[in-house]
Amino acid sequence: MKVLFLTLSRINSIEEQSIYQDLLRKFRDEGHNVNIITPIERRFNKNTHLIKEEKVKILNVKTPNIQKTNLVEKGFGTLILEFLFKKAIKKYFKNEKFDLIMYSTPPITFTRLVKTLKNDNDAKTYLLLKDIFPQNAVDLKMMSSSGILYKYFRKKEIELYDMSDWIGCMSEENKKYVLKHNPGLNEAKVEVNPNSIYLQEEKNTFSDSNKILDIIPQNKIIFLYGGNLGKPQGINFLLDIIIASNYNSNAFFIIVGSGTETDKINKWFDTKKPDNALFINQLNQKDYEILLKHSHVGLVFLHPDFTIPNYPSRILPYMKYKLPILFATDTNTDVGKEAELHEYGFWCESGKIDEFKKFIESFTFNKELRIEMGINGYNRLKKDFNVNYSYKMIMNHFN
């Protein structure tokens, strides 16, 4: 088939590792032609351009900054994204015909573009639902549920769900939420298609002399948080945990990532100067994997006010490197509860410091527990979060 994928994520090569590139690489490896449309924000100072790889075309469309920027530019960029993508498609893909159109949320503003492409190509459409907007903005008090903006985006959301032939949700609770809050939606087209990665045997390409190892303290149990640092992640609780765990001389926290809370975290580290934690603002993929390899426990935090069941993809690298996971989230997501059910992590509600500290102590002083839970997580990754599983789910609709 000829596959078209629309996304907000920045993609420079299909060989990069992420939930989207891994799935698209699977499509390519199975013989499909893959076409990707992805933004390249103005801060990178590049014009719209086409990248060609084997059986893959990547169209980078110049856009305003839409990630890790202020709300005004983010909002404006998101609103005109559909227009910019449509203009680029007409120029670079005008003679192409697509069989399958896939797209991820965010954003939900691709509705008219996807509908046009669907009709023009007589194609099937598949939504990879990674974000439930605008409700997440309401939960974080960034938008009022009675305001004009909410009503506009909510209408777009409903249209996107209705127009999609199939909707792949990240978890069972995610699916239940979508169906409950969209009662007119055809239940038969909504399924659980979780975040997944291409799982291959690890090649020994890492060198223990790498510079990243020089900053990792020896003889400590490393608790690693890697990923986006924004308001949805509930970073305040992570910082509270670092302070509350200062008595535990065996535990060391490493935060790796960037986002809208980066300045806040930098100032916090400058002020508090914790001797049990390290903040790394930017780290390339190879160095991050080296860090994963030498860490002991993965950390996941979500803002406590969420009413939508998020399912962070950051758990997948942890599971790949056999790290048990500690979760502090809202009560609506099932990500931590599933980890406890399958025995690869512990979960508590965000804000419950004493409970979370007990989990840290358990992992700090019980190597056997860390190893056992890490193996459990890896086994679940192979079974349920493998890109082969996600690919087969989508392709079953064409058999």
Characterise the protein shown here.
This protein is α/β, with parallel strands linked by helices. The chain has 2 domains: 2-193, Rossmann fold (3-Layer(aba) Sandwich); 211-384, Glycogen Phosphorylase B (Rossmann fold, 3-Layer(aba) Sandwich). The protein contains 14 helices and 14 strands. It has helices at residues 19-29, 71-92, 111-121, 135-139, 148-163, 172-181, 235-244, 262-272, 285-293, 315-320, 335-341, 353-365, 367-384, 387-395; strands at residues 2-6, 33-41, 49-53, 56-63, 100-105, 124-129, 166-169, 190-192, 221-226, 251-256, 277-280, 297-301, 325-329, 345-349. The chain has an 8-stranded mixed β-sheet, with helices on both faces. The protein has a 6-stranded parallel β-sheet with strand order 11-10-9-12-13-14, sandwiched between helices. Helix 1 packs across helix 14 (387-395). The mean pLDDT is 90.
Give the tally of β-strands: 14
Q: What is the terminal-to-terminal distance?
A: 13 Å
CATH architecture of the largest domain: 3-Layer(aba) Sandwich
Mean pLDDT, nearest integer? 90
List keywords for this structure.
399 residues, alpha/beta, Rossmann fold, 2 domains, 8-stranded mixed sheet, 6-stranded parallel sheet, 14 helices, globular
What are the SSEs and their pairings?
Blueprint: E1 2-6, H1 19-29, E2 33-41, E3 49-53, E4 56-63, H2 71-92, E5 100-105, H3 111-121, E6 124-129, H4 135-139, H5 148-163, E7 166-169, H6 172-181, E8 190-192, E9 221-226, H7 235-244, E10 251-256, H8 262-272, E11 277-280, H9 285-293, E12 297-301, H10 315-320, E13 325-329, H11 335-341, E14 345-349, H12 353-365, H13 367-384, H14 387-395
Parallel strand pairs: 1-2, 1-5, 2-4, 5-6, 6-7, 7-8, 9-10, 9-12, 10-11, 12-13, 13-14
Antiparallel strand pairs: 3-4
